[in-house]
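Recall the central idea of this unit: under ordinary conditions, the amino acid sequence of a chain determines the structure it adopts. In this exercise we apply that idea directly, starting from the sequence alone.
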Amino acid sequence: MKKLLLCVAVAATFTGSLAYAEDAKPDNELSFNIGAVSDYRYRGISQSRLDPALQGGADYTHNPSGFYAGTWLSSIKWIKDAGGSGNLEWDVYGGKKGEIVPGVSYDVGVLSYIYPSNGLAVDANTTEIYGQIGYGPGYIKYSQAVTNLFGFDNSKNSGYLDLGANFEVAPGYTLGLHYGHQSVNNNGAVAYDDWKVGVNKEFFGVNFGLAVIGTNANEKLYVTPAPDSKFTGKTAVVLSAVKTF
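Accordingly, the structure predicted from this sequence is:
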């Protein structure tokens, strides 16, 4: 997977002139988003104790070059459940996207997950580099941690493989399919697979999503604190609503 990241990065370097040719796109684009979910699932695992979460962010894109940067925030509960403090996830990211050849896209970048004042024995703050190649409705993406992963000790170089596809199945309706595998270096017991099947449709300027999400994570390790002890990777239906402006 390290070779995949290197190949995508090299391709990005030598194909800067092949960035997406999109009609009527300004050179500089800035957008904002705000939304809510019935359960904040990340890589199949609930970050919000199976409860709703509020989310929002901002994105900037320089269309001629394909460079982009953004930030995103969400309410969370897993840090407190793990014995730390804080109820906020703050993501900061940047990268470059475009086309390698017509019809084959790439996206490479870096993403930092910040958990202010999390206070865990192993810092939860995590940084990953990622590379993605897309063709038609499908894509393959690999992310690799250059720090410890989400508070797991000695877990640098953990990786996440993401395979997916998005199809328009009816006017305005998009079917999304996803399979992922999270490896956790030196912590094999907490590795797992996750999957998602979802449909998105815009109504009244708001993008609504309905998805079934599940994992095969260890039910004894991914749980909320006692006495509830709920499995945070259980199969569930998740509703989302996002407004972009």
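Residues 2-14 form the longest helix (13 residues).
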